[in-house]
Amino acid sequence: MAWLSRESGRSSWQIGWTVGTKRQSIRLGSMTKRAAESVRSRIEELIDNRRAGLPLPPGLGEWVDAIDDDLRDRLVRGGLVVPRRRRSLGDLVDAYVESRPKISAATKVRDRQVTGLLVEKFGRDCPLDSIGRRDAEAWRRWLGTQNRRDSNRDELADNTIRRRTGVARQVFAVAIRWGWLTTNPFEGLSANVRENPERQEFVPWSSILAAIEACPNQEWRTMLAFVRLTGVRVPSELVALTWGDIDFAAKRLTIRSPKTAHHGADKASRVVPLFPELLPYLEDLASLAEPGVTTPLSDPVFPCCRSGAINLRQRFTKILERAGVTAWPKLFHQLRASRQTELLASFPAADVCRWLGNSPAIAARHYAMPTTESFERAVESASVNGSAGGAAGGATARSGGAAGGLAAPHDAVRPTQERANTLKKQQEMRLPAMVLSGPETGEGVGGTGLEPVTSAV
After folding, report:
1. What CATH number is given for 202-370 in this structure?
2. Tens digits of residue pLDDT in 217-241
3. For 150-188, how does the pLDDT look when each residue is reduced to its tens digit (9 = 90+)?
4. Domain with CATH 1.10.150.130 in the chain
5. Residue 107: its pLDDT value, please?
6. What's the topology of domain 89-194?
Protein backbone atom coordinates (compact mmCIF):
# COMPACT_ATOMS: atom_id res chain seq x y z
CA MET A 1 0.00 0.00 0.00
CA ALA A 2 1.07 3.56 -0.66
CA TRP A 3 0.38 6.44 1.66
CA LEU A 4 -0.28 10.09 0.94
CA SER A 5 0.77 13.03 3.10
CA ARG A 6 0.73 16.78 2.77
CA GLU A 7 4.05 18.51 3.23
CA SER A 8 4.09 20.69 6.31
CA GLY A 9 3.03 24.27 5.65
CA ARG A 10 2.76 23.71 1.87
CA SER A 11 0.11 22.75 -0.68
CA SER A 12 2.28 20.01 -2.20
CA TRP A 13 1.89 16.28 -1.57
CA GLN A 14 4.19 13.35 -1.00
CA ILE A 15 3.55 9.67 -1.72
CA GLY A 16 5.50 6.89 -0.05
CA TRP A 17 5.58 3.09 -0.31
CA THR A 18 7.66 0.14 0.78
CA VAL A 19 9.25 -2.42 -1.54
CA GLY A 20 10.61 -5.28 0.54
CA THR A 21 12.33 -3.57 3.45
CA LYS A 22 13.16 -0.44 1.51
CA ARG A 23 10.99 2.62 1.95
CA GLN A 24 10.71 5.02 -0.98
CA SER A 25 8.83 8.24 -1.65
CA ILE A 26 8.30 10.90 -4.30
CA ARG A 27 7.07 14.46 -4.13
CA LEU A 28 4.10 15.25 -6.33
CA GLY A 29 4.27 19.00 -6.03
CA SER A 30 1.27 21.28 -5.72
CA MET A 31 -2.07 19.76 -6.72
CA THR A 32 -5.53 19.11 -5.31
CA LYS A 33 -6.10 16.30 -2.87
CA ARG A 34 -8.37 14.56 -5.35
CA ALA A 35 -5.63 14.56 -7.99
CA ALA A 36 -3.08 13.35 -5.47
CA GLU A 37 -5.40 10.49 -4.44
CA SER A 38 -5.71 9.49 -8.10
CA VAL A 39 -1.92 9.41 -8.48
CA ARG A 40 -1.60 7.30 -5.33
CA SER A 41 -4.13 4.80 -6.76
CA ARG A 42 -2.09 4.51 -9.95
CA ILE A 43 1.15 4.05 -8.02
CA GLU A 44 -0.43 1.21 -6.02
CA GLU A 45 -1.32 -0.47 -9.32
CA LEU A 46 2.28 -0.07 -10.48
CA ILE A 47 3.59 -1.61 -7.23
CA ASP A 48 1.23 -4.62 -7.56
CA ASN A 49 2.22 -5.21 -11.21
CA ARG A 50 5.90 -5.00 -10.34
CA ARG A 51 5.59 -7.50 -7.49
CA ALA A 52 3.66 -9.92 -9.72
CA GLY A 53 6.02 -9.41 -12.66
CA LEU A 54 3.10 -8.57 -14.98
CA PRO A 55 3.10 -6.18 -17.93
CA LEU A 56 1.19 -2.96 -17.54
CA PRO A 57 -2.50 -3.29 -18.45
CA PRO A 58 -3.72 -0.97 -21.25
CA GLY A 59 -5.33 1.64 -19.00
CA LEU A 60 -2.32 1.89 -16.71
CA GLY A 61 0.11 1.90 -19.61
CA GLU A 62 -1.76 4.77 -21.26
CA TRP A 63 -1.62 6.73 -17.99
CA VAL A 64 2.14 6.20 -17.72
CA ASP A 65 2.61 7.35 -21.33
CA ALA A 66 0.44 10.44 -20.77
CA ILE A 67 2.08 11.82 -17.60
CA ASP A 68 4.59 14.62 -18.00
CA ASP A 69 8.33 13.98 -18.11
CA ASP A 70 8.93 15.34 -14.59
CA LEU A 71 6.55 12.92 -12.86
CA ARG A 72 7.71 10.04 -15.02
CA ASP A 73 11.35 10.70 -14.11
CA ARG A 74 10.39 10.54 -10.42
CA LEU A 75 8.63 7.20 -10.97
CA VAL A 76 11.73 5.97 -12.82
CA ARG A 77 13.93 6.94 -9.89
CA GLY A 78 11.49 5.13 -7.63
CA GLY A 79 11.89 1.97 -9.68
CA LEU A 80 8.22 1.76 -10.74
CA VAL A 81 8.51 2.41 -14.50
CA VAL A 82 11.22 2.22 -17.14
CA PRO A 83 12.66 5.38 -18.73
CA ARG A 84 10.65 6.81 -21.56
CA ARG A 85 12.04 5.76 -24.92
CA ARG A 86 12.81 8.75 -27.07
CA ARG A 87 10.83 8.47 -30.26
CA SER A 88 12.75 8.95 -33.48
CA LEU A 89 11.68 10.52 -36.75
CA GLY A 90 11.75 7.05 -38.29
CA ASP A 91 9.27 5.84 -35.66
CA LEU A 92 6.89 8.67 -36.52
CA VAL A 93 7.18 8.20 -40.29
CA ASP A 94 6.50 4.46 -40.09
CA ALA A 95 3.60 4.85 -37.66
CA TYR A 96 2.08 7.71 -39.65
CA VAL A 97 2.09 5.77 -42.93
CA GLU A 98 0.69 2.68 -41.20
CA SER A 99 -2.14 4.70 -39.64
CA ARG A 100 -3.51 5.79 -43.03
CA PRO A 101 -4.37 2.59 -44.97
CA LYS A 102 -7.48 3.93 -46.74
CA ILE A 103 -6.10 7.04 -48.42
CA SER A 104 -5.93 7.30 -52.22
CA ALA A 105 -2.90 6.20 -54.21
CA ALA A 106 -2.03 9.81 -55.09
CA THR A 107 -2.10 10.81 -51.41
CA LYS A 108 0.15 7.86 -50.55
CA VAL A 109 2.66 9.08 -53.11
CA ARG A 110 2.51 12.59 -51.66
CA ASP A 111 3.02 11.28 -48.11
CA ARG A 112 5.99 9.17 -49.20
CA GLN A 113 7.57 12.19 -50.90
CA VAL A 114 7.29 14.45 -47.86
CA THR A 115 8.23 11.88 -45.22
CA GLY A 116 11.15 10.82 -47.40
CA LEU A 117 12.36 14.43 -47.55
CA LEU A 118 12.08 14.74 -43.77
CA VAL A 119 14.17 11.60 -43.30
CA GLU A 120 16.67 12.71 -45.94
CA LYS A 121 17.27 15.99 -44.12
CA PHE A 122 17.17 14.90 -40.46
CA GLY A 123 17.87 11.14 -40.57
CA ARG A 124 15.69 8.25 -39.35
CA ASP A 125 17.39 8.09 -35.96
CA CYS A 126 16.94 11.78 -35.20
CA PRO A 127 15.13 12.14 -31.82
CA LEU A 128 11.70 13.52 -32.52
CA ASP A 129 11.76 16.04 -29.70
CA SER A 130 15.08 17.46 -30.91
CA ILE A 131 13.49 18.94 -34.07
CA GLY A 132 12.62 22.53 -33.23
CA ARG A 133 11.19 25.53 -35.05
CA ARG A 134 14.61 26.58 -36.31
CA ASP A 135 15.12 23.11 -37.81
CA ALA A 136 11.70 23.26 -39.48
CA GLU A 137 12.51 26.62 -41.07
CA ALA A 138 15.87 25.27 -42.27
CA TRP A 139 14.10 22.23 -43.79
CA ARG A 140 11.70 24.53 -45.62
CA ARG A 141 14.57 26.56 -47.09
CA TRP A 142 16.42 23.38 -48.05
CA LEU A 143 13.25 22.04 -49.65
CA GLY A 144 13.34 24.83 -52.22
CA THR A 145 16.56 23.40 -53.67
CA GLN A 146 15.22 19.86 -54.08
CA ASN A 147 13.69 20.12 -57.55
CA ARG A 148 14.01 16.67 -59.08
CA ARG A 149 11.09 16.91 -61.49
CA ASP A 150 11.62 19.84 -63.83
CA SER A 151 15.13 20.12 -65.31
CA ASN A 152 14.34 23.60 -66.61
CA ARG A 153 14.02 25.03 -63.09
CA ASP A 154 16.61 25.09 -60.30
CA GLU A 155 14.14 25.48 -57.44
CA LEU A 156 10.74 24.17 -56.48
CA ALA A 157 7.76 26.42 -57.07
CA ASP A 158 6.62 28.35 -54.00
CA ASN A 159 3.24 26.59 -53.96
CA THR A 160 4.95 23.18 -53.99
CA ILE A 161 7.03 24.21 -50.97
CA ARG A 162 3.91 25.44 -49.20
CA ARG A 163 2.01 22.25 -49.97
CA ARG A 164 4.80 20.00 -48.68
CA THR A 165 5.26 22.15 -45.59
CA GLY A 166 1.56 21.63 -44.88
CA VAL A 167 2.00 17.85 -45.10
CA ALA A 168 4.98 17.97 -42.73
CA ARG A 169 2.90 20.00 -40.28
CA GLN A 170 0.15 17.38 -40.54
CA VAL A 171 2.61 14.57 -39.78
CA PHE A 172 3.88 16.29 -36.63
CA ALA A 173 0.33 17.17 -35.58
CA VAL A 174 -0.37 13.42 -35.46
CA ALA A 175 2.64 13.00 -33.16
CA ILE A 176 1.10 15.55 -30.79
CA ARG A 177 -2.24 13.74 -30.89
CA TRP A 178 -0.48 10.50 -29.95
CA GLY A 179 1.33 12.17 -27.06
CA TRP A 180 4.77 11.83 -28.63
CA LEU A 181 5.32 15.58 -28.79
CA THR A 182 3.94 18.65 -27.04
CA THR A 183 4.67 21.25 -29.73
CA ASN A 184 4.66 21.25 -33.52
CA PRO A 185 7.85 22.76 -35.01
CA PHE A 186 6.05 23.38 -38.33
CA GLU A 187 3.13 25.27 -36.79
CA GLY A 188 2.87 28.78 -38.23
CA LEU A 189 4.98 28.16 -41.33
CA SER A 190 3.28 29.26 -44.54
CA ALA A 191 1.39 26.33 -46.03
CA ASN A 192 -1.62 27.85 -47.82
CA VAL A 193 -1.43 27.45 -51.59
CA ARG A 194 -1.69 30.84 -53.32
CA GLU A 195 -2.80 31.70 -56.81
CA ASN A 196 0.14 32.25 -59.14
CA PRO A 197 -0.81 34.23 -62.28
CA GLU A 198 2.69 33.81 -63.69
CA ARG A 199 2.14 30.07 -64.07
CA GLN A 200 -1.38 30.37 -65.48
CA GLU A 201 -1.75 29.96 -69.22
CA PHE A 202 -4.90 29.41 -71.21
CA VAL A 203 -4.43 26.47 -73.57
CA PRO A 204 -6.49 26.96 -76.75
CA TRP A 205 -8.22 24.02 -78.41
CA SER A 206 -6.07 24.59 -81.51
CA SER A 207 -2.94 23.61 -79.54
CA ILE A 208 -4.57 20.35 -78.47
CA LEU A 209 -5.63 19.63 -82.05
CA ALA A 210 -2.01 20.00 -83.13
CA ALA A 211 -0.92 17.65 -80.33
CA ILE A 212 -3.62 15.14 -81.29
CA GLU A 213 -2.18 14.96 -84.80
CA ALA A 214 1.20 14.00 -83.28
CA CYS A 215 -0.18 11.29 -80.97
CA PRO A 216 1.08 7.71 -81.48
CA ASN A 217 -2.34 6.01 -81.37
CA GLN A 218 -6.08 6.47 -80.97
CA GLU A 219 -5.94 5.97 -77.20
CA TRP A 220 -3.67 8.99 -76.76
CA ARG A 221 -5.68 11.08 -79.25
CA THR A 222 -8.89 10.38 -77.35
CA MET A 223 -7.22 10.89 -73.98
CA LEU A 224 -5.94 14.37 -74.83
CA ALA A 225 -9.33 15.40 -76.18
CA PHE A 226 -11.02 13.90 -73.12
CA VAL A 227 -8.80 15.75 -70.64
CA ARG A 228 -9.12 19.09 -72.42
CA LEU A 229 -12.89 18.90 -72.99
CA THR A 230 -14.00 17.44 -69.63
CA GLY A 231 -11.40 19.02 -67.33
CA VAL A 232 -10.82 15.80 -65.36
CA ARG A 233 -8.02 15.43 -62.85
CA VAL A 234 -4.97 13.59 -64.15
CA PRO A 235 -4.14 10.84 -63.47
CA SER A 236 -6.59 9.83 -60.72
CA GLU A 237 -9.88 10.39 -62.58
CA LEU A 238 -8.53 8.97 -65.85
CA VAL A 239 -7.39 5.81 -64.09
CA ALA A 240 -10.84 5.32 -62.56
CA LEU A 241 -12.74 5.76 -65.87
CA THR A 242 -14.26 2.55 -67.32
CA TRP A 243 -16.38 1.91 -70.40
CA GLY A 244 -19.37 1.44 -68.14
CA ASP A 245 -19.04 5.10 -67.09
CA ILE A 246 -19.79 6.31 -70.63
CA ASP A 247 -23.46 6.50 -71.64
CA PHE A 248 -23.45 7.23 -75.37
CA ALA A 249 -27.25 7.17 -75.61
CA ALA A 250 -27.86 9.73 -72.85
CA LYS A 251 -24.64 11.65 -73.63
CA ARG A 252 -23.49 11.46 -70.02
CA LEU A 253 -20.16 10.63 -68.40
CA THR A 254 -19.73 9.41 -64.83
CA ILE A 255 -16.44 10.67 -63.41
CA ARG A 256 -15.18 8.96 -60.23
CA SER A 257 -12.98 11.12 -58.04
CA PRO A 258 -10.65 9.40 -55.55
CA LYS A 259 -9.49 12.85 -54.36
CA THR A 260 -12.89 13.92 -53.02
CA ALA A 261 -14.40 10.50 -52.19
CA HIS A 262 -13.57 10.82 -48.49
CA HIS A 263 -15.89 13.85 -48.25
CA GLY A 264 -18.95 11.63 -48.70
CA ALA A 265 -20.81 9.56 -51.27
CA ASP A 266 -22.06 12.64 -53.13
CA LYS A 267 -18.44 13.72 -53.68
CA ALA A 268 -17.20 10.32 -54.84
CA SER A 269 -18.49 10.77 -58.40
CA ARG A 270 -20.14 13.34 -60.64
CA VAL A 271 -22.01 13.39 -63.93
CA VAL A 272 -20.52 15.38 -66.82
CA PRO A 273 -22.09 16.13 -70.21
CA LEU A 274 -20.66 14.25 -73.15
CA PHE A 275 -19.77 17.35 -75.13
CA PRO A 276 -20.32 17.12 -78.92
CA GLU A 277 -16.65 17.96 -79.64
CA LEU A 278 -15.58 14.90 -77.62
CA LEU A 279 -18.09 12.41 -79.03
CA PRO A 280 -16.22 11.55 -82.28
CA TYR A 281 -13.01 10.72 -80.41
CA LEU A 282 -14.78 8.40 -77.96
CA GLU A 283 -16.72 6.74 -80.77
CA ASP A 284 -13.49 6.07 -82.70
CA LEU A 285 -11.88 4.52 -79.62
CA ALA A 286 -15.02 2.50 -78.87
CA SER A 287 -15.02 1.10 -82.42
CA LEU A 288 -11.58 -0.35 -81.71
CA ALA A 289 -12.25 -1.57 -78.16
CA GLU A 290 -15.84 -2.79 -78.79
CA PRO A 291 -16.96 -2.30 -75.15
CA GLY A 292 -19.59 -4.80 -74.07
CA VAL A 293 -18.62 -7.14 -76.90
CA THR A 294 -14.93 -8.00 -76.84
CA THR A 295 -14.02 -5.63 -74.00
CA PRO A 296 -15.84 -5.85 -70.62
CA LEU A 297 -17.55 -2.64 -69.52
CA SER A 298 -15.48 -2.78 -66.34
CA ASP A 299 -12.24 -2.39 -68.30
CA PRO A 300 -10.45 0.99 -68.26
CA VAL A 301 -11.02 3.36 -71.16
CA PHE A 302 -7.35 4.41 -71.05
CA PRO A 303 -5.24 1.37 -70.05
CA CYS A 304 -2.00 3.33 -70.46
CA CYS A 305 -2.90 5.37 -67.36
CA ARG A 306 -2.82 2.23 -65.22
CA SER A 307 0.58 1.18 -66.46
CA GLY A 308 3.33 2.17 -64.08
CA ALA A 309 5.81 1.95 -66.95
CA ILE A 310 4.44 5.09 -68.63
CA ASN A 311 5.03 8.58 -67.30
CA LEU A 312 2.09 10.56 -68.66
CA ARG A 313 3.75 13.92 -68.20
CA GLN A 314 6.94 12.93 -70.02
CA ARG A 315 5.01 11.28 -72.85
CA PHE A 316 2.77 14.34 -73.25
CA THR A 317 5.83 16.61 -73.35
CA LYS A 318 7.34 14.56 -76.18
CA ILE A 319 4.05 14.69 -78.12
CA LEU A 320 4.04 18.49 -77.83
CA GLU A 321 7.64 18.62 -79.08
CA ARG A 322 6.72 16.55 -82.14
CA ALA A 323 3.74 18.83 -82.77
CA GLY A 324 5.88 21.95 -82.53
CA VAL A 325 3.85 23.25 -79.58
CA THR A 326 5.66 24.91 -76.68
CA ALA A 327 4.86 23.17 -73.40
CA TRP A 328 3.07 25.30 -70.79
CA PRO A 329 3.51 25.23 -67.00
CA LYS A 330 1.55 22.58 -65.09
CA LEU A 331 0.70 20.57 -68.19
CA PHE A 332 -2.48 18.77 -67.12
CA HIS A 333 -3.70 21.28 -64.56
CA GLN A 334 -3.82 24.03 -67.19
CA LEU A 335 -5.99 21.85 -69.43
CA ARG A 336 -8.48 21.57 -66.59
CA ALA A 337 -8.28 25.30 -65.85
CA SER A 338 -8.69 26.22 -69.52
CA ARG A 339 -11.82 24.11 -69.85
CA GLN A 340 -13.38 25.57 -66.72
CA THR A 341 -12.64 29.07 -68.00
CA GLU A 342 -14.41 28.27 -71.27
CA LEU A 343 -17.44 26.71 -69.62
CA LEU A 344 -17.85 29.56 -67.13
CA ALA A 345 -18.22 31.92 -70.07
CA SER A 346 -21.23 29.96 -71.37
CA PHE A 347 -22.92 28.17 -68.44
CA PRO A 348 -23.92 29.01 -64.84
CA ALA A 349 -21.07 28.69 -62.36
CA ALA A 350 -23.02 26.23 -60.19
CA ASP A 351 -23.38 23.81 -63.11
CA VAL A 352 -19.79 24.16 -64.27
CA CYS A 353 -18.36 23.60 -60.78
CA ARG A 354 -20.53 20.51 -60.37
CA TRP A 355 -19.19 19.16 -63.68
CA LEU A 356 -15.59 19.91 -62.73
CA GLY A 357 -15.91 18.77 -59.12
CA ASN A 358 -14.85 21.94 -57.30
CA SER A 359 -16.47 24.96 -55.65
CA PRO A 360 -17.04 28.44 -57.11
CA ALA A 361 -14.52 29.86 -54.64
CA ILE A 362 -11.82 27.39 -55.68
CA ALA A 363 -12.66 27.87 -59.34
CA ALA A 364 -12.33 31.65 -59.07
CA ARG A 365 -9.07 31.42 -57.15
CA HIS A 366 -7.17 28.67 -58.97
CA TYR A 367 -8.87 27.89 -62.30
CA ALA A 368 -10.74 30.76 -63.98
CA MET A 369 -8.47 32.91 -66.14
CA PRO A 370 -8.92 36.19 -68.01
CA THR A 371 -8.85 35.74 -71.78
CA THR A 372 -8.17 38.06 -74.69
CA GLU A 373 -11.42 36.97 -76.33
CA SER A 374 -13.46 38.13 -73.33
CA PHE A 375 -11.66 41.47 -73.29
CA GLU A 376 -12.33 42.08 -76.95
CA ARG A 377 -15.97 41.08 -76.57
CA ALA A 378 -16.35 43.50 -73.67
CA VAL A 379 -14.90 46.36 -75.74
CA GLU A 380 -17.31 45.71 -78.59
CA SER A 381 -20.46 45.12 -76.52
CA ALA A 382 -22.64 47.20 -74.22
CA SER A 383 -22.14 46.28 -70.58
CA VAL A 384 -24.68 48.68 -68.98
CA ASN A 385 -28.42 48.31 -69.58
CA GLY A 386 -29.89 51.18 -71.55
CA SER A 387 -26.51 52.70 -72.47
CA ALA A 388 -26.68 54.96 -75.49
CA GLY A 389 -23.18 54.38 -76.83
CA GLY A 390 -22.56 54.50 -80.54
CA ALA A 391 -20.65 51.20 -80.83
CA ALA A 392 -22.17 48.66 -83.15
CA GLY A 393 -21.97 45.99 -80.46
CA GLY A 394 -23.92 48.21 -78.04
CA ALA A 395 -26.64 48.93 -80.58
CA THR A 396 -26.95 45.24 -81.33
CA ALA A 397 -27.26 44.39 -77.63
CA ARG A 398 -30.00 47.00 -77.16
CA SER A 399 -31.91 45.75 -80.18
CA GLY A 400 -31.83 42.14 -79.02
CA GLY A 401 -28.90 40.94 -81.13
CA ALA A 402 -26.88 39.71 -78.09
CA ALA A 403 -23.57 40.83 -79.55
CA GLY A 404 -20.58 39.01 -78.20
CA GLY A 405 -22.79 36.62 -76.28
CA LEU A 406 -23.84 39.13 -73.62
CA ALA A 407 -27.31 38.49 -72.28
CA ALA A 408 -29.53 41.54 -71.66
CA PRO A 409 -32.59 41.88 -69.42
CA HIS A 410 -35.98 41.87 -71.18
CA ASP A 411 -36.56 45.61 -70.83
CA ALA A 412 -33.19 46.47 -72.29
CA VAL A 413 -33.79 44.84 -75.65
CA ARG A 414 -36.69 47.11 -76.65
CA PRO A 415 -36.00 50.02 -79.02
CA THR A 416 -35.22 53.21 -77.13
CA GLN A 417 -38.40 55.17 -78.19
CA GLU A 418 -40.71 52.23 -77.48
CA ARG A 419 -39.14 51.79 -74.06
CA ALA A 420 -39.62 55.51 -73.27
CA ASN A 421 -43.29 55.40 -74.33
CA THR A 422 -43.91 52.29 -72.23
CA LEU A 423 -42.34 53.82 -69.14
CA LYS A 424 -44.45 56.98 -69.63
CA LYS A 425 -47.67 54.95 -69.82
CA GLN A 426 -46.71 52.98 -66.70
CA GLN A 427 -46.08 56.19 -64.79
CA GLU A 428 -49.43 57.66 -65.89
CA MET A 429 -51.26 54.50 -64.81
CA ARG A 430 -49.59 54.40 -61.42
CA LEU A 431 -49.73 58.15 -60.70
CA PRO A 432 -52.77 59.72 -62.49
CA ALA A 433 -52.58 62.93 -60.41
CA MET A 434 -48.90 63.47 -60.87
CA VAL A 435 -49.43 67.03 -62.18
CA LEU A 436 -52.30 69.22 -60.96
CA SER A 437 -53.24 72.51 -62.70
CA GLY A 438 -56.38 74.64 -63.07
CA PRO A 439 -57.93 78.06 -62.82
CA GLU A 440 -57.97 77.84 -59.01
CA THR A 441 -54.19 77.71 -58.76
CA GLY A 442 -53.13 79.24 -61.99
CA GLU A 443 -49.95 77.18 -61.92
CA GLY A 444 -48.75 73.63 -61.84
CA VAL A 445 -47.97 71.94 -58.53
CA GLY A 446 -45.28 69.31 -58.44
CA GLY A 447 -46.13 65.93 -56.94
CA THR A 448 -44.58 64.93 -53.64
CA GLY A 449 -41.94 62.22 -53.92
CA LEU A 450 -38.38 61.55 -52.82
CA GLU A 451 -37.22 65.00 -53.88
CA PRO A 452 -38.33 68.20 -52.08
CA VAL A 453 -41.64 69.75 -53.27
CA THR A 454 -41.24 72.29 -56.10
CA SER A 455 -43.55 75.16 -56.90
CA ALA A 456 -44.18 74.03 -60.43
CA VAL A 457 -43.29 71.38 -62.95
Report:
1. 1.10.443.10
2. 999 999 999 999 999 999 989 999 9
3. 555 667 888 889 999 999 999 999 999 887 888 999 999
4. 89-194
5. 87
6. DNA polymerase; domain 1 (1.10.150)
